[in-house]
Design goal:
Elements: E1 4-9, H1 16-24, E2 42-48, E3 52-58, H2 69-78, E4 85-89, H3 94-105, E5 110-113, H4 119-129, E6 148-152, H5 166-177, E7 181-185, H6 190-197, E8 203-206, H7 211-217, E9 224-226, H8 227-235, H9 238-246, E10 256-261, H10 272-285, E11 289-294, E12 307-310, H11 318-331, E13 335-337, H12 338-345
């Protein structure tokens, strides 16, 4: 999620795939003289000089007019939502001029690749315009060196076997880097962990789906937050998300709610976004229509929705999350995320520590 996302745009057969392969030093994208060889966006993780860890995104031709041309063009334009820097090839066409205008309007820097330009020169051009976001901690000012932090991490069917989910890994690593003292437990061992601490921890971080359980178990003077809330602050607009959570009160029976997931995991019976949150909403509001948008399938038309609830976006970059927040605002639709929505539904949002 923290890698620089570099997308390559141009007409069909303009050399996008050849350029991506040259940068990577290996065959990442299929290259041929047949127009429309690249059909879907192709992503490659690479470590590049002057840029560090990056995601390179090869796209279909912006002027693809084949059998599925319109759909390919839609997927290509959708890549803009996650693009930190755009590389434009053969930019003289009307379609490319329109794309450049859209990039400028979204505040996405771009560079023009000149035929024959060396890879090293291109990478230097990208580095010159790449956004330089100040590095910040997910835990913000909630902790510091020496802080005792209790992590409550459910290991249910949704958790990958033998591994921790990404937000848990990221937060745990950050706490170690900051000189904190993390204590880890599952909900089942929460009481034992509390008994072993002796003194109250400086912060409790839990998975949002057990907010209610942890809230009841810990004393009222213990600071509480969740992995999802920390990600919401780091990648999105926390004020917009808090306001979106409060908009749950405005939902009425028959309303339509969008659950937006940045990843494309295969859901299980315990899925937080597809099962647990919809059940909590229906218990509070009554009959609702709940749509699911997974991966890059974020709807272009948001007008049918009364609320959007986004996942923690652990596998998405900040550009994608903020793009979706802007689209929701433009459509006049409140947007929140899993952690804040659950905290509000359970009546504990006021006690949640926000970074």
């Amino acid at each position: 999620m923290e890698r620089l996302h570099i997308a390559f745009f141009g007409p069909t057969n303009s050399g996008k795939s050849t350029l991506v392969n040259a940068i990577c030093g290996q065959e990442v994208s299929l290259v041929s003289a047949v127009p429309g060889t690249t059909t879907d966006p192709v992503r490659k993780i690479a470590e590049l000089p002057d840029l560090g860890p990056c995601v390179l995104i090869d796209t279909a031709g912006i002027d693809d007019n084949g059998t599925l041309g319109a759909e390919r063009q839609r997927l290509t334009r959708a890549v803009m939502d996650e693009t930190d820097v755009a590389v434009l090839l053969d930019g003289g066409s009307a379609a490319m001029a329109e794309l450049k205008s859209a990039l400028d309007g979204a505040g996405i820097p771009s560079v023009i690749y000149e035929r024959g330009q060396g890879v090293e020169s291109l990478l230097q051009s990208i580095a010159a315009v790449a956004p330089k976001e100040e590095s910040k901690y997910l835990t913000g000012d909630l902790v510091g060196p020496g802080s005792n932090v209790l992590l409550v991490m459910p290991q249910d069917k949704e958790a990958p076997k033998g591994r921790l989910i990404l937000p848990q890994v990221q937060i745990l690593r950050e706490l170690l880097d900051r000189g904190c003292v993390p204590h880890c437990c599952t909900p089942d061992s929460l009481q034992a962990a509390m008994d072993s601490l002796g003194n109250k921890p400086d912060l409790v971080i839990t998975d949002s789906q057990v907010f209610g359980l942890v809230n009841k178990a810990i004393p009222r003077d213990w600071a509480l937050t969740s992995f999802s809330v920390l990600l919401a602050a780091a990648k999105g607009d926390l004020r917009a998300f808090v306001a979106g959570a409060k908009a749950i009160d405005a939902l009425r029976p028959g309303a339509r709610v969008l659950i937006a997931e940045a990843c494309t995991h295969v859901p299980d019976t315990e899925d937080i976004g597809r099962v647990k949150i919809p059940a909590m909403l229906r218990k509070r509001v009554g009959d609702l229509t709940v749509d699911i948008a997974a991966g890059n399938n974020f709807p272009e038309d948001l007008s049918p929705y009364s609320l959007i609830i986004h996942c923690g976006a652990c596998v998405a970059n900040a550009r994608l999350v903020r793009s979706r927040i802007r689209k929701a605002a433009a459509a006049g639709v409140p947007i929140t995320n899993y952690g804040l929505a659950i905290a509000y539904l359970q009546g504990i949002l006021p006690r949640i520590s926000l970074p």
